[in-house]
Amino acid sequence: MDNKISQGENYWKNRPLIDKKHSDWREKDGNWIDAYWNSRLHPHRALIMKELKELVPFHSVLEVGCNCGPNLWNIKQEYPGVRVFGIDINKYCILKAIKYLPEGNFSLGEVDKIPFPDKSFDILLTDAVLIYVGPKKIKKVIKEFIRVTKKAMIFVEWKGNSKLGEVQYSHWARDYSALLKDFGLTCKLIKIPKEIWSSPNWAELGYIFVCPIA
């Protein structure tokens, strides 16, 4: 099953600029990256901003799996002095992010090989990224996240009952509270309400996990 989900990582890495086989935000023309950009006011992003407010002051944010930067755009609107960074495995996402948010810092990168020195960022954010990371890899990924983060991590992901991960709706859900305890960390859980994200999978499993580092 790990291999099946890792194929999902390869799918994202090699996904073409126009993809008419899949629809992420109900786009009909296959332009999935622009659809992500047009989703930057989706209400779940306001929940992220609410949790970020609790972590003020902070001076830098890294989003791992940033796509074209809709979350980082929101952060930059609210906190113009904060430096925003994003990595993604898809080259088209990075090119679009540079176009849409030129004041950001964007580069190709993988979840378990973040191309930055230790403790480079106050906040690390993921949004529907760890649902593609399987049990064999997740601890390595969390260790890498902790390595580059100074203050707190925010995960917008799916909650399951297994520490390392269980498959729900063809993606990985896991108990991040139990997983982070292995690293000596605790996290706050915020359920994403159905009225915020009505998609059945997110309505059932979607949570925001806030994990202080310091």
From TrEMBL:
Pfam families to which the protein is assigned, alphabetical: Methyltransf_25
Entry-linked SUPFAM superfamilies: S-adenosyl-L-methionine-dependent methyltransferases (SSF53335)
Database matches in InterPro entries: Methyltransf_25, SAM-dependent_MTases_sf
Biological process according to GO: methylation
Stored Gene3D superfamilies: Vaccinia Virus protein VP39
UniProt-recorded name of the protein: Methyltransferase domain-containing protein
Sample GO molecular function, one term: methyltransferase activity
Organism: candidate division CPR3 bacterium
